[in-house]
Amino acid sequence: MAAVPDKKTFDKGAVVKTDSASLIAFAAAVAKHDERFQHAKGTRSGIRAPRSVKKTSIWQRKNPGLAKRASKHDGPSPNEDPDGESARKAAMERKSKMYEMLKRGEDVPDRLREELLVEFEYKNRGHGSSDDDDSGSNDGRRYRSRDRRRSRSRSKESDWDRDESVALSRDPRDYKNDPWVEHVDEFGRSRLVRQSEVPEPEPEPEPRYTPGIHNPANPFPVFLNQDAVDKQEWIRDATGEMRSIASQRKSGGGYSLANTTRHYNSAGERRAHGVGFYAFSQDEDERQRQMRELIEMRSQTETKRSQHRSLRDKRREEIEARKRLIQKKRLKSLVSTISMEPKG
């Protein structure tokens, strides 16, 4: 009878049959024991595994010297005097308080008034009396100015505290003679207000007569040659005639003949003119004669040009006819040469 092998002993090379359910159960058991082991290890040591640190990008990196420079700029300067700075600040605050008191019309002690940089009582001083009279008058004016400032401050406070509804309340019968009108203010905004509330327009300044702008004969000094000087003398002689004509027409006087010149005059110019420049005369008859001469010269030029054009065209036609005749002769000689060649 053969011996039965023990359950705990297996033959070498024996195949153990397993199924998927047993493998899944085994993997679950191993994972469970591993989790318990890691948990127990962490509680015993109290130190967790370090996390992986991500590398920062170049856009997230800070300048290593930025914080140091910022602290240096924000901190006090070595050359700065903290006591002097605080004293200057206190002096400025004290002076600002005094200026505010003067603006409100309050009285300022004399010992503080000496520290002011602006002398507010200078306009009220007298300049024609002696020193004693000046001192007495100045004291009187000083007290009067103080009273005025106090009364002004009280009036401002009363205006500030008064009820505007009482001032705005009007009798409805007054609105009949005060209709609504559309008004454009200084900012260009259209407003609908009462006619009595429309501000009056500012009076326009009277126009000032400036000789250099309003019809001047020669507003600016210039250096003139002898021809220009002669022209100025002629203008001065003719100005009286123009003034008489202007007075007859009741259009006012004072106009110069220089502004009524119709033709260009190059007598007072120092620039070089071109080749085609023609200096016309200022005399009307002489000018018309010169214009007629130029027109006649122009007509003669056009006539000669047309004659020359006709001769040129005739010469061109003769040349073309000569070319055609030469081409015919060449063609005849070429044909005779080809016909005389022997046939091979």
TrEMBL record:
Residues 37-222, 293-322 are annotated as: Disordered. It comes from the Eukaryota. It comes from Mortierella alpina. Residues 180-201 form the CCDC174 alpha/beta GRSR domain. Residues 143-153 have a biased composition (Basic residues). This is CCDC174 alpha/beta GRSR domain-containing protein. GO terms for cellular component: nucleus. InterPro entries: CCDC174-like (IPR025066), CCDC174_GRSR (IPR057464). Keywords: Coiled coil. The keyword Ubl conjugation does not apply. Pfam families: CCDC174_GRSR (PF25449), DUF4078 (PF13300). PANTHER family: COILED-COIL DOMAIN-CONTAINING PROTEIN 174. Residues 85-130, 154-189, 293-305 have a biased composition (Basic and acidic residues).
